């Protein structure tokens, strides 16, 4: 009897097997869909992205404009794209800092770009050992990929009026990751209901009026101004104490209400110092040493000092 030659086809790698492995690697939420089955839904998101760029809402984030074509057409990013796998990992929902100086929660801990990428790479390289034909590309934040779109299309949550991806149980303090693969998953998109209802708390809370329902004018957003914008601001904004990032439109969200206390010092990453006088006196060399290897290192020293001065002028009632 002639036996079929044994070829380990990536097709024998099921979504369930991938999901199991990713859950074991610390990703409680895992989704998947076939790109071709998701196309018509994808188009709606791609059009919204195009409109957002056309309105100039990306401000000085030129990479978002440069990556437009690749975001609209994911096969430019990964030519053999068939199945898209998405993951989410929650981070600490507790506020970081004190009544004077605050940091966005996502900064508390090791840089998620590194940890999420490493954990996804480890899982997929292990799967590839078993299924050598598997091809994949891991994307966490920095690739020209519409991560929230993929998260929505694979049922990880809905996009709230604050534009964040919200999971009914985990809320929105979650990081997202996307893995493009050459696998056919035999999965159609799965789209959750939008549970915002008539709530508008995020829109009312935003101190700079950066939000319209499901639309962020990034040029007005404190997160953009403190993290992404280089040089002086065109106008003086109150940052409500935030010196890096902003969580205001998330902490008022009823799906995130479990967090009530400032994170104790013992659970705050050592680089997130909240002593204003100390920080204002810090030199560039000291700052660089303090933030090295953390997500805060993306904020350059002059910009961090600018952010501190905004907090100081608010404190002085200027
Ligand atoms: C650029 C960017 C920013 C910009 C712009 C943010 C924005 N709202 O667009 C700035 C610097 C302001 C920013 C801030 C923050 N960011 Co940011 N950011 C990104 C990045 C790199 C691209 C986002 C993007 O393309 N924006 C453009 C808009 C138009 O696209 P979009 O928001 O993704 O929305 C698409 C779909 O969701 C869909 N859509 C949205 N609403 C609706 C409604 C309907 C009805 C339909 C049909 C479709 C639809 O259409 C859109 C276009 O395709 C992503 C990573 C990535 N590669 O995707 C992280 C990402 C979105 N950021 C993240 C985080 C954590 C933050 C902050 C919380 C950090 C902080 N604490 O300061 C804040 C949140 C501010 C806010 N209210 O959004 C996480 C979000 C996790 C989550 N739960 O959603 C991401 C996914 C990074 C990650 N891998 O975890 N960010
Ligand atoms: S992150 Fe802050 S500034 Fe940006 S939309 Fe939310 S509340 Fe407004
Ligand atoms: S605060 Fe309300 S409107 Fe805003 S995202 Fe949360 S549920 Fe939706």
Structure in words:
By secondary structure, the chain is of the alpha+beta class. The protein is built from twelve helices and eleven strands. Strands 1-2-8-5 form a four-stranded antiparallel sheet, sandwiched between helices. A three-stranded mixed sheet has the order 3-4-11. The chain has a two-stranded antiparallel sheet with strand order 6-7. It is globular. The model has no long low-confidence stretch (mean pLDDT 94). Cobalamin binds next to helix 2, helix 6, strand 8 and helix 8.
Describe how the helices and strands are arranged:
Layout: H1 15-24, E1 29-34, H2 35-54, H3 62-66, H4 68-72, E2 83-90, E3 96-97, E4 102-103, H5 112-130, E5 136-139, H6 147-153, E6 158-159, E7 165-166, E8 174-181, H7 201-205, E9 211-212, E10 215-216, H8 222-228, E11 242-244, H9 248-251, H10 276-280, H11 284-291, H12 301-315
Parallel strand pairs: 4-11
Antiparallel strand pairs: 1-2, 2-8, 3-4, 5-8, 6-7, 9-10
Bound molecules: cobalamin (B12) and iron/sulfur cluster (2 copies).
The site of cobalamin has 38 residues, from helix 2, helix 6, strand 8 and helix 8.
């Amino acid at each position: 009897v002639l036996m079929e030659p044994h070829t380990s086809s990536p097709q024998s790698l099921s979504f369930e097997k991938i999901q199991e492995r990713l859950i074991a690697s610390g990703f409680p939420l895992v989704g998947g869909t076939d790109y071709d089955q998701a196309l018509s839904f994808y188009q709606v998101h791609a059009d919204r992205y195009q409109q957002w760029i056309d309105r100039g809402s990306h401000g000085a984030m030129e990479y978002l404009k440069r990556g437009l074509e690749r975001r609209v057409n994911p096969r430019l990013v990964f030519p053999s794209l068939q199945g898209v796998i998405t993951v989410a990992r929650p981070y600490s929902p507790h506020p970081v800092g004190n009544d004077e100086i605050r940091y966005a929660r996502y900064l508390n801990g090791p840089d998620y770009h590194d940890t999420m990428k490493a954990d996804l790479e480890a899982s997929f390289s292990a799967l590839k050992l078993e299924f050598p034909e598997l091809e994949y590309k891991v994307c966490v934040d920095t690739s020209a990929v519409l991560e929230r779109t993929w998260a929505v299309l694979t049922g990880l949550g809905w996009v709230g009026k604050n534009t964040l991806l919200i999971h009914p149980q985990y809320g929105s303090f979650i990081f997202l990751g996307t893995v493009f693969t050459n696998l056919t998953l035999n999965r159609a998109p799965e789209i959750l209901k939008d549970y915002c209802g008539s709530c508008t708390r995020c829109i009312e809370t935003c101190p700079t009026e950066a939000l319209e329902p499901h639309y962020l004018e990034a040029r007005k957003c404190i997160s953009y101004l403190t993290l992404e914008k280089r040089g002086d601001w065109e106008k003086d904004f109150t940052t409500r104490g935030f010196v890096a990032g902003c969580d205001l439109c998330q902490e008022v969200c009823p799906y995130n209400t479990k967090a009530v206390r400032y994170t104790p010092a013992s659970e705050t990453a050592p680089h997130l110092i909240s002593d204003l006088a100390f920080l204002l006196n810090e030199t560039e060399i000291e700052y660089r040493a303090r933030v090295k290897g953390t997500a805060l290192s993306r904020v350059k020293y002059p910009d961090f000092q600018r952010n501190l001065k905004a907090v100081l002028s608010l404190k002085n009632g200027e």
